[in-house]
Design goal:
Helices cover about 30% and strands about 25% of the residues.
Amino acid sequence: MATMRAAVLAAPHRFDLREVAIPQVGLDDALIRVSRTGICGTDIHIFNGHYAADRLPLVPGHEFAGTVAATGAHVKHIKPGMTCVADVNIGCGECYWCRRNEILNCPSMTQVGIGRDGAFAEYVCVPARLVIAAPDNVPAEVLALTEPVSCVVRAARKARATFGQSVVILGAGPIGNLHVQMMRLCGAAPIIVADLSKERCRLALEVGADAAVADPARLKAEVLARTGGRGADLVIESVGSPRLYELAFQLIRKGGHVAFFGLTGPQDTVPVEILRTILEENSVKGSVAGMGEDMHDALTLLSHGRFRTAAFTRSIFPLEQIQQAFETLAERPKDLKTQIVLN
């Protein structure tokens, strides 16, 4: 049986580099030879044992790019050798939610690298209908950003972000930085970022934020000063902190919108002033993962250079050093993304 190298998370905080069987390709599947895979915040939660601990041992990894290595007998639209990325949200494809591109609500939904083995391996197998052809002239390290960019594409779509909106983004980490760039593409202004890290505030300013606040005590005054005293049209929480979600409601204007994006624990809640929400016509929308057309749109934007990617692509580790890559993430705030080289 043909084998491949894979980083298996055997237990929280412990990767084992193993030689495992290359996945079997079903009639409707595609086998992808992985080039690059990025480390996502979800992967960090899995590594730390805060998420999907019941699914270990597991090969994580869902932000990847590669080439088609083989296809099942029923697959006609893609061929071996094709450069590609893939949607990692797998639904049944037939239910009410799948028809509406709300795959996360599908009763049989699973995700590559979370609910099934993923792309911290030389090969990954996915349903062929989720494989997306990518331009050969875009570097693999940029293509591997398609999935995280699709997440901010969907968040912007769900929040109905548009020209001239004032936006506050809570968190200037990797996904917060991408939210800044997405809001700039949508024509939002001003864009105000808040993060405790001065380095990440600086990086946010470099990619288009109009203001970046590292002192929490200054944030509300800054927002009011830049929005004519009204508050923001839109606040995006991209950290996953109940305290920051509560703060988001204090930063929106009357009739404003809070985008729920950062993942919290299942037990976490946030108080909402019901009467104020009704009378001011405020709104809330949740979003976390890009899927379907979000992936295609993200690939188009990346292929045409609409995102600045240097801080996402300069930190590279070989598969053999994946344990070190995870353990040193906090020591490298200038690196918004770390990628693992597979092939």
